[in-house]
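re: ur msg from earlier - yeah i can do the flavin-adenine dinucleotide complex, just paste it... oh wait u already did. ok heres what im feeding in:
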Amino acid sequence: MTVKIRNEIVKTDFLIVGGGIAGLQAAIAAGEKGIDVVVAEKADTRRSGCGANGNDHFACYIPECHGDDFDLVLRQVNMTMDGGPWQDPSMMKLWLSRSYEVVQKWESIGINMRPTGKWNFEGHSVPGNQRYHLKFDGKNQKSALTQAAIANGARIMNKTVVNEILTGDDGRVVGAIAVDISQDAPEMVIIQTKSILIAAGAASRLYPGITPAYMFNDAGCPANTGAGQAMAYRAGARLANLEMAGGHAGPRYFARGGKGTWIGLTSDIHGKCITPYQDKPSRQNGDIASDIWPGSYRDRMRDGTGPSYMNCTETTDEDLDYMLHEAMVSEGIDSLTDQLDQRNISLRDSMIEFGSYNIGLSTQGIDIDIHAMSSIPGLYAAGNVVGNVKGNVSGAAIIGMVAGEHAAEYVKTVDEVSVEAHPLVAEKQALYTRLMEGGKGAHWKEAASTLQNIMNDYAGLYVRSESLLTAGLTYLRQLKAEALDSLGAENAHELMRTLEILDLIDIGEPLFLMALNRRETRASHKRSDYTYTNMLLNDKFQTIEKHGDEVVLDYRARW
Ligand SMILES: Cc1cc2nc3c(=O)[nH]c(=O)nc-3n(C[C@H](O)[C@H](O)[C@H](O)COP(=O)(O)OP(=O)(O)OC[C@H]3O[C@@H](n4cnc5c(N)ncnc54)[C@H](O)[C@@H]3O)c2cc1C
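and the outut:
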C-alpha cells in the first residue's frame, strides 16, 4: 500500500516542530508579530512533552527580588543545574535577562506564577546564595499556552509527526515532511514554509532506561526521541556536545522527574547525610546534591557504597504535607503521592531509594546563535533540543520567544519556494511505503533494544575507548542498514515508533563520532585510553556537521 500524500500542501511563514514549552512560546511571540504560524505536534499540545502535567520551578532573574547586580546573578545561577560549563555565556545572559518578561506573560495568560501571593523562590538552590527558581504552579501551563497561541493566530496540527526538513538550492529552509498519525492509515503531509523552529525536545530512549523492560517508564517525556537533532543533522545543521550525554535522578524504578521538589537529604542506608550541602532538610533550598551530581546514585551502586536515599524522615510535617500535596501536584508528579498512599508508605518513617537514570540528550544538540538560528538559514531551535543553552522550562520558553520574534523579521527577507517536486518527498514516500508494507516483519522494539544495548555498552557513561567506540559505531551502522531493510509497521502509530528508532540511530552515529574525537576524559565522557582532562579544551564545545557524505568535526570557543 503506497502511503498517500495529502492533496493540499500546508503553507505558512513559520513552521514550529513540537508544541511543547519552547514551541508554544515561539508561536505566541511570532503570532504577536503578525506572521502566519503552524505548530505541528506529534501528540496534543494541551498535554505533551516534558511539561505535559506541569512544572514547578522557573529559573529567572526578577530585579526587584535579586537586585541590580546582574553579574552576581549570572555567577550564582551558573552554580545551579541551569548553569555550568555546557552553555555559551552569551546565551545564558540572553535567557536570564529576558526571563522576567516571560514570567509576567505567563501570569497574564493564567498560569499561577505566585501561588503564595508573592514571588517565592524555592528548591534547586545553593545554600548561602540568592535563590532563582521561582516556585510556580504549572499544572495548567500546557492548556494555557495552547490557548494563548491559538488566540494569537497559530494553527495547531496535532498528531502530526515531522520527519524531515527540506532545504532549497541556496541551502536555506523551504519546507518539511510530516506524517499525520491521527488515523490507522498514515498520511504524508508536505509543508511549504520560509522558516522552521525545531522544538521537539530531548532525546529519551537512546540509552536503556532504569527498567529496560518498561521502555516508557522514563523521567523525561518518552515521546521526545531526538527527532529534532536527527532532522537537523540530516539537513546539514551544526550540532554541539552530543558526546556529553547526561542523565537525571529520582526515585529508583519509579521514574519521575522533579528532583528539585523533594525536601529531604541525600543519605546512606543508615540515614546519614552523604553530601556537604545541607545538614537539615530545607524547603527553601531543596537538596542540590542531585542537581550537581545526578550520577552519584549510580556511582555509589557500582562502588558498593550505595544504595542512596532521599531521606525525608526529619522533614517537618508541614513541609511534608506541602511537598506531597501541593508541590508535586504543581509539577505533575503526584502519581508518586498516590503510590505512597496506596502502599501505606509514610515518608516520616521510610526513606525512598533514589537512582540515576534517563541518560540521553537534553541540551546537547543543535548549535544556535543569539537569534536562536542554527547554521542553516531559516532553521531555528529552542528548548532541550539545543546544544548550547540550558534553563529547562525557563530557557525553553525564552529562547522559543526569541526564535519567534526573529523568525517574524527573517521571513520578510526571503521568498517562498515550491517544495512539491523536492527529491526528498519521493524518497520519504518510498521509505514509509516500504515500512507500511511490513518490511521483513521485524518490529521496532527489536531495533530499539539493540540500539540501547549498543549505546550503553560501547558509548556508555562508565568507560569509553577507541576500541569500544569503533566497535560500537560499526554495530550501529549495521543496525541502521538492517533496520532499514527489515523493519515493518502495521499502522500509523507503529510507523511513528519506527521512525523514532530510525531518528535515534541517526543521532547515535554523530554521538559515537564525537566521542571518538574527544581524546580526553571530562565529566560523563570517560576515556580509558585518554584518562586526563585536556585543559586546552576547557572553554570549547565540540561540533559536528554533515554535508553530503562528508562529516566535519571541530572545536569552537564558547562565546
Ligand atoms: C516531570 C518533569 C518535571 C519537570 N520539572 C521542571 C521544573 O520544575 N522546572 C524546569 O525548569 N524544568 C522542569 N522539567 C524540564 C522541562 O519540562 C523541560 O526542560 C521543558 O519542557 C523543555 O521544553 P521543550 O519545549 O524543549 O520540550 P518539551 O516541552 O518536552 O516539548 C517537546 C514537544 O515536541 C513534540 N515532538 C517530539 N518529536 C516531535 C516530532 N517529530 N514532530 C512533532 N512534534 C514532536 C513532543 O510531543 C513535545 O510536545 C521537568 C521535566 C519533567 C519530565
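cool cool. The first helix runs from residue 21 to 32. ping me if u need the other ligands too
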